[in-house]
UniProtKB/TrEMBL annotation:
InterPro entries assigned: TMC, TMC_dom
Membership in a protein family: Belongs to the TMC family.
One Gene Ontology cellular component annotation held by this UniProt entry: plasma membrane
Subcellular location: Membrane
Transmembrane segments: 222-243, 255-282, 354-375, 446-470, 490-511, 532-551, 571-592, 671-694, 744-761
Any matching Pfam family: TMC
Main location: membrane
Name of the protein in question: Transmembrane channel-like protein
Signal sequence annotation: none
Record-level Gene Ontology MF annotations: mechanosensitive monoatomic ion channel activity
Domain (TMC): residue spans on this chain: 561-667
Keywords: Membrane, Transmembrane, Transmembrane helix
Higher taxonomy: Eukaryota, Metazoa, Chordata, Craniata, Vertebrata
Membrane disposition: Multi-pass membrane protein
Length: 823
């Protein structure tokens, strides 16, 4: 027991007794008189008078101490006082009545007697209605609400009487009404089971129960089972569903978002491949042009360089013709370098390859842009509506388990997934309470950004100089015989670029280690931004080299078909990037794991680098979109690359990597990835392709746009042909000149897209603010309840103790008891 050393510690034992007695009297204890009487002391004796004097002094001292305690308690905040006042052990009757009538305490707290009474009344009314009409509609469901009958839940006899009366009333109803009545009763499952046994205990009830389900209900139930079975099969047929659950449960949502991003890119490329294959590649493959056979020797490097026999294939731009394919066309009637000629018969079906080429590329970019904007808006909406960590944690703890899971593997995966999500939520709650970094680390951050920006600038400058050097070397050997060394030299520029993409992210990780970020999510964002600057700089230099130098002056570079050359360059870049990714995954991550465990003596494996791998995916997809105009089958190469990359990264992750030491919840990672894919990647590729179609002159010796000033003139030529053959279609020429040739339409279309994105973002931002205001309002409602209850209790105490404020019962949190214990 805690000993309180009061100023009265020097008084003798009888005096201590009386001091404690008067102390209790200060607290409103009525036993002080009994204590004095029990002590056997008579009033008026000398000892009694002396004790009264001494105890009066002790009372004054104790009263002064109690006043000091009260003053210190009054200095507390209002919220803490209200919280302490709510922690009482005893409340007044009026306060308890108010508390019991609050909606938050009355929902679901009805007594069984009250429920049974209400159900009894409803069943009686239903029975009377049966007697009057003898026809009950099956669509009207009985309800037990709306009857405010109060009963004492502690009266067992009355409850049994009500229960028996309810059973008798229900037995007089039909089987369907009995079942619906029991189903609508807000009782527990055990109570419903007891009532069901009592209601259907007779033979008639059992026979009715066995025949109560009609055929239509059985058919509906069977259809429901079939529908849910089909939904389960469709969900199980999703691509990589089991593997994604396994990776998400073991490594967290950050790594899972990377593999989900791979699946998203795969779906985009499947769409591109289907559109180009159906409307562009397949018609040209059915009616191939006659090309002169190539005398190039097959060495095997053509698969990596795209030259040789691949240059005269459906893979590249130069293979496609500028003719119109007719249904009566035969390949033996075609001339070299062209397809079937045009026809003057307006009733004959014709397929214009240049028009199909231009419109197919335009439609694919247009639909891809719409899907990206829609996906980004939906992702923003999901990320804005993420619950707070505390509320989401409660949902995860109590509502996240799926009780339909029965297999051991599924149970283990689900438990791992829930465990990882709880760790992430706990780390987010803990991370929100950490202090921010000091200002002394600004010098380290400034040095890190200087190193990152400087290395990015020198890497882009080096690639630009090396590209110019390689083209000069190619012009020197252009007139000689093509050899294996010359073909291998074509892979030098993609190799240098891939080396830069491989080494500089490692430098960025080293710089990030120097910065020593406390939050893993901040470190990830910084790494993504630095890698994004690197990729954008490299792609900007390459686009300037291809479109600003080679496409503008193809004769000076010795190119007869510069579109096929640019397509071959993009094909080589995509393949070499994949080769370097494979080498880094197989050897780099494995060697780093051995080095970390063997040399550094670390028991943990390396962590998966999300920033590097995500930006590699965005870089490869940007190359695919850039090459769509020059290499129509490049999405097929990207599909194979993504399929292999998923399985390879998954195996490497399970063997060579380990989950992060600091778990974190990637609630907005998918939104960030889609945003980066939309604006820097897709927007840059769209601008480059649009610039090529509208401003660069196509080659005159190859491709579907030969002998045209610009690529978009193919639509104008087609509209003029329609006008000459059929005057009713002359309006198409006006539509083409206003919508396609005029760049104002493109600017308006882009403006509409940006306006839709802006409006949707503002709507989502407003919804996020409303959600935060509603959450704050809920918190204020709780504070209002505390304030009202405390005020009600204070009013009650004032009415109960109007003359002695010091005798009012103090709250439990602010009560002070002085225990005087004899040594």
């Amino acid at each position: 027991m805690h000993v309180y050393h009061s100023p009265l510690s020097g008084i003798n034992k009888p005096l201590l007794f009386h001091c404690s007695t008067f102390t209790r009297s200060l607290r409103g204890d009525d036993t002080a008189q009994d204590s004095m009487t029990g002590a056997g002391l008579e009033s008026g004796s000398p000892e009694t008078l002396e004790m009264e004097v001494l105890t009066t002094e002790g009372r004054d001292r104790l009263a002064s101490q109690m006043s000091d305690v009260r003053e210190r308690a009054d200095e507390r905040s209002e919220e803490s006082i209200q919280t302490n006042l709510l922690a009482r052990k005893s409340w007044s009757t009026a306060t308890l009545r108010v508390l019991s009538s609050m909606p938050s305490r009355s929902i679901g707290q009805q007594s069984r007697l009250e429920i049974i009474s209400q159900c009894n009344i409803r069943s009686t009314q239903l029975r009377r209605y049966h007697r009057q009409t003898q026809d009950v509609s099956l669509s009207s469901r009985p309800s037990i609400r709306g009857y405010g009958i109060e009963a004492d839940s502690e009266d067992v006899c009355e409850e049994e009487t009500k229960r028996q009366e309810l059973v008798n009333n229900l037995q007089s109803l039909s089987a369907g009404d009995r079942v619906r009545m029991l189903r609508a009763t807000p009782l527990s499952l055990a109570e419903k089971t007891k009532l069901r046994k009592l209601v259907f205990s007779d033979k008639v009830g059992q026979s009715l129960l066995s025949s109560q389900v009609p055929c239509c209900s059985l058919l509906k139930r069977a259809l429901y089972h079939i529908w849910f079975g089909c939904l389960f099969i469709l969900s199980s047929l999703q691509l990589w569903q089991v593997a994604l659950k396994r990776l998400g449960g073991r490594f967290g949502t950050g790594v899972l978002s990377y593999f989900l991003f791979i699946r998203t890119l795969l779906l985009f490329n499947v769409f591109l491949f289907l559109i180009n294959g159906l409307f562009l590649v397949l018609p040209q493959a059915i009616h191939p042009p006659l090309h002169t056979p190539s005398s190039h020797r097959v060495t095997g490097l053509e698969l990596f360089t795209g030259t040789g026999y691949l240059s005269n294939s459906l893979m590249f731009y130069g293979y496609y013709t500028n003719s119109t394919i007719n249904t009566s066309c035969r390949p033996d009637k075609a001339t070299a370098g062209t397809g079937c000629g045009t026809t003057s018969d307006p009733h004959m079906m014709a397929y214009n390859i240049p028009l199909a080429y231009c419109f197919t590329i335009g439609i694919t970019f247009f639909i891809t842009g719409i899907v990206l904007v829609y996906s980004m808006s939906k992702s923003f909406e999901r990320s804005f509506r993420v619950f707070k960590s505390q509320g989401n944690m409660a949902i995860k703890v109590f509502c996240s388990w799926d009780f339909k899971v029965s297999k051991k593997m599924s149970v283990r995966l689900q438990s791992e997934n829930i465990t990882t999500q709880l760790k992430e939520l706990l780390s987010e709650v803990k991370g929100g309470e950490e202090e921010k970094g000091r200002l002394s680390g600004m010098a380290v951050h400034l040095l890190a950004w200087s190193i990152s920006l400087g290395s990015t600038f020198f890497c882009a400058l080096g690639i630009h100089c090396f590209a110019k050097y390689m083209h000069l070397r190619r012009l020197e050997h252009a007139e000689g015989e093509v050899s294996v060394v010359h073909e291998a030299r074509l892979l030098a520029l993609p190799g240098v670029v891939s080396c830069g993409n491989l080494l500089l992210p490692g430098l960025f990780n080293l710089v990030s280690w120097m910065e020593n970020f406390n939050s893993p999510i901040v470190r990830l964002y910084v790494s993504i931004f630095r890698n994004l600057l690197l990729k954008v700089s490299i792609l900007g230099v390459l686009c300037y080299h291809w479109l600003g130098k080679i496409a503008a002056e193809p004769e000076q570079h010795g190119l007869q078909c510069w579109e096929s050359f640019v397509g071959q360059e993009l094909y080589r870049f995509l393949l070499v990037d994949f080769i370097f990714t494979v080498l880094y995954t197989v050897f780099g991550e494995f060697i780093w794991k051995r080095f970390s465990q063997g040399v550094l003596r670390r028991r943990r494996k390396p962590v998966f680098d999300i920033a590097r791998n995500v930006l590699e995916l965005i870089y490869g997809q940007t190359l695919t979109w850039l090459g769509l105009l020059f290499t129509p089958l490049l999405p097929a190469v990207q599909i194979l690359k993504l399929l292999l990359l998923f399985h390879m990264k998954k195996s490497s992750l399970l063997v060579n990597c380990q989950a992060s030491r600091k778990p974190w919840r990637a609630s907005q990672m998918s939104t960030l990835f889609i945003s980066l894919l939309c604006f820097p990647s897709f927007l840059g590729a769209t601008v480059s392709v649009t610039y090529t179609i509208w401003t660069i002159k196509p080659s005159s010796g190859c491709g579907p746009f030969r002998n045209l000033p610009f690529m978009f003139h193919s639509g104008k030529q087609w509209a003029q042909e329609l006008k000459s053959t059929n005057h009713k279609l002359a309006w198409l020429n006006w539509v083409h000149s206003c919508l396609v040739e005029n760049p104002l339409f493109l600017f308006l279309l882009a403006g509409v897209f940006l306006m839709v994105i802006y409006i949707h973002t503002q709507v989502l931002d407003g919804q996020r603010k409303i959600i935060s205001l509603l959450q704050e309002q809920i918190e204020n409602e709780g504070k209002d309840k505390k304030f009202l209850i405390t005020s009600l209790q204070a009013i009650h105490e004032k009415r109960q103790y109007p003359l002695s404020p010091s005798s009012r019962p103090q709250p439990q949190g602010s009560e002070v008891e002085y225990v005087l214990v004899e040594d």
